[in-house]
Amino acid sequence: MKKKLLMALLVGVLAVPSSVSCFAAESTDAAAADSDEEEETEETEAEDKDTTAKKKENLKTVGEKKDGCIAFKLRNATSKKIIGLAIKTADETEFTENMMEEDDSFELKEKKRIYFSKETEENAEENTDETAEDKAPTYDMRITFEDGTSADVHGIVLEDLRTLTIREKDGIVYGTYKLKSTKEKKTTYDTEKAIADQAAADAAAAQAAASQPAESYDSNDYSYDYSGEDYSGGDDYSGGEDGGDGCLDNGLLG
């Protein structure tokens, strides 16, 4: 009886580590699944602390620091090097020239400090007056990669962020950041996807229209086949019933 009781206790003790191991494995898998989001959250929160602000001196810069310029950090989280960067306001049609030097590039995971200046002080004052009672202006950014391809990121609130991270998902390049004023996390993924979907739909419609057979019509063909018509018989207009010559009488002419 004592042996049976001892064996039962031994089995129970051995079963406990097994359950703990299974629980630990499940916890590890869940943590790995959320690692990317946690990494971004920790990085964003760290930027709000003064201790992290000192590290900005070690970052390489793009653009020239001027009075009134917009300063922010840009991080490359895509799978390709970035060799070109251009910025414009959302209501402008043309991007600025490439802000990066010819031999400069964003390596993978690299972060740099960007200094962007608006074209003129007058434009800056006008934009400030127009948006003071509305909302902060938004900007578009054109990213050029080392393979020659480029992508536009739309609707970025550059003046209210510290770090803009450029990402890529399902072939769509987009940006993520956190607003300094409200701590709200923002992403442009939905905007970029909607633009890409619309462009694909337009291209498909154009291709379908081009593939339709054109209607054949020769506007220069005025020929008509009269070979089937018989004009040998019918009314005889060579003379009247009285055997006249068919000419008008002199009396009628007179």
Q: Would you write up a description of this structure?
A:
With 254 residues, the protein is of the alpha+beta class. The chain has helices spanning 2-33, 35-47, 50-53, 121-131, 189-211, 250-253, and strands at residues 61-62, 70-76, 82-89, 111-116, 139-145, 150-156, 163-169, 172-178, 185-187. The strands form two sheets. It has a six-stranded mixed β-sheet. The chain has a three-stranded antiparallel β-sheet with strand order 3-5-6, with no helix packed on it. The longest helix is centred in the N-terminal third of the chain and has 32 residues, at 2-33.
Task: Give me the Rg, rounded.
Answer: 40 Å
Alpha-beta content class: alpha+beta
Mean pLDDT, all residues: 76
Outline: globular
Poorly predicted segments: 16-35
Number of helices: 6
Q: Could you give a short account of the major beta sheet?
A: 6 strands, mixed
Strands, count: 9
| Helix percentage | 25-40%
Please give the alpha-carbon distance between the first and last residues.
Answer: 159 Å
Order of helices and strands: HHHEEEEHEEEEEHH
- How are the strands of the largest sheet arranged? 1-4-2-7-8-9
Short description:
Keywords: Signal. This protein has helices at 2-33, 35-47, 50-53, 121-131, 189-211, 250-253, and strands spanning 61-62, 70-76, 82-89, 111-116, 139-145, 150-156, 163-169, 172-178, 185-187.
